[in-house]
Amino acid sequence: MLVLAIDTATPAVTTGLVQLDAAAGPRTLASRVTVNARAHGELLTPQVREVVAEAGAALGDVDALVCGAGPGPFTGLRVGLVTAAALGHALDRPVYPVATPDAIAYDVFRDAPGQELLVVTDARRREVYWARYDETGARVDGPNVERPAELADRLAGAVVRRAAGQGAELYADVLGLPVTAPGFPSPAGLVGAAADAVLSRATPAPLTPLYLRRPDAVEPGARKRVSQS
Amino acid sequence: MSALAGAVVLGIETSCDETGVGVVRLRADGHVELLADEVASSVDEHARFGGVVPEVASRAHLEAMVPTVRRAMEVAGVRPSDVDAVAVTAGPGLAGALLVGVAAAKAYATAWGVPLYGVNHLSAHVAVDTLEHGPLPGPALALLVSGGHSSLLEVADLAGPVNQLGATIDDAAGEAFDKVARLLGLPFPGGPHIDRVAREGDPDAIAFPRGLTGPHDPAYDFSFSGLKTAVARWVEAAERAGRSVPVADVAASFQEAVVDVLTAKTVRAARERGVDHLIIGGGVAANSRLRWMAEQRCADAGITLRVPRPKLCTDNGAMVAALGAHLLAAGVEQSSWDIPADPGLHVSEIVMP
Ligand SMILES: Nc1ncnc2c1ncn2[C@@H]1O[C@H](COP(=O)(O)OP(=O)(O)OP(=O)(O)O)[C@@H](O)[C@H]1O
After folding, report:
1. How close, in Å, is residue B99 to chain A by CA atoms?
2. Do the Cβ atoms of A211 and B59 come within 8 Å?
3. Which of A2, B62, B277, B315 qualifies as a cystine partner to B140, CB 3.0-4.6 A?
4. B255-305: per-residue pLDDT in tens?
5. How does pLDDT run across B314-343, given as a tens digit for each residue?
6. Architecture of B2-128+316-329 per CATH?
């Protein structure tokens, strides 16, 4: 199956065209991963067009889409989700959401299985998004958002041997875990994390963003007076 | 033009709290025909905050986008293969909100293999009038009055450059309506409530100031912040004196001050520029007193007034589709695939390169 992968939940804009077979797993035909936290809206569609062209395919050849659902900074996250949703609608193809840390974990376990993992990405405001995986690669906690120090406290009671994701590098001193690649989700990681659903042509789960935080908004207080008295 | 007759344009609008998707068809005679105008609004989610909360609006746009496009295409009776171009509001507006629409429009246009037009929200407010009143016969003035804008524009043709003659130097007209409504204990958004309550009041009861109407003030700019403060002072003084506030009179007198200035400056501009068509657009164009006074003053001055029906005046996708259709008809080059959402897009930039 030909799968288009998209993720904008981290500073990277991840796009790729991936061949997915039950036996061989995901194989990347073309990919663009650009790290630029401020240009998700500008970069995403051009990258989609580039990977499709580079693979010598047409968008209409795509059998399914996979999209990272976060957690991630809201504005960028929405670019990927709305793009994937609109492409899915326009092409009449299913769109499968995956939790973004699952895509990073997929890559880690594919290269080096067998050890517990923490995936950490940057949530800005001095916080991180994180998710924890057991030695089989199954997610056992998270995704969640927290201060790095709080996360470090929480880890005291858990078995974790390594960490991945750009947030793991940023806060390596606080977390005290060896950091392994990758820093960002890859197209193959995204498709791999959704492989079962994609291959079985299951009805996709709703494409719901993992915001994990409420919008900043305050209800107004009493009216301000304008007259001096 | 002939090759484009029958062309269908889909328009997407997400600059504020309305997710709008419109579908129009370009006819051989140059008329642009409205096929669908679907709007999903998050206004109720903002009401308790007394104003639009950008993040709440952006979240609502993401949820509403595909369902609203689906609905609009169903209502219009068009299939994906019928769509010839996608237009989207690229600015001005709320950054995060705009971005949802721009990203979606790029995806649809890319998937369907059709051109993308990232357009100016203000020009779209002007272009929407052609859906109701047909092509513009010549140069026109456009008064755009909404919650975010109050601008006086000179438009030679819809696909061509826009000349901004004036604009508010502080609050937008709709913003003034909303703030004064809050002062009077009326719900958000307050414009329609002031309009309703004012019908029972006396517009001459209180002489509120007319902003920027002195001999040395800029002739075509507006200011509503001083007016809003004057209303607040008046209400506070009444409360302090233990008098009950005559809400209808305050609303009517405030509304009169806004409408008087808007129409007087606009008609003067039309006279001085020798333009004899006026379009009024934006949410405040729904105001009954503004419509009435504009009709009177335009009739006296020999100006043909065009005000689209209220549904087309507030933010919607049909206006974006209409502008897209005019750009397509004029052979304007499509926008590139890497255009940003530009919250401060200048009114002179009708379509992003
Ligand atoms: N009858 C009315 N009288 C006065 N003001 C009105 C009336 N109806 C609506 N309004 C005002 O119009 C504004 C809404 O306009 P619109 O729907 O164009 O949205 P907006 O987000 O303000 O638009 P824009 O993004 O173009 O600035 C609000 O401020 C509202 O109070």
Report:
1. 7
2. yes
3. B277
4. 999 999 999 999 999 999 999 999 999 999 999 999 999 999 999 999 999
5. 999 999 999 999 999 999 999 999 999 999
6. 2-Layer Sandwich (3.30)
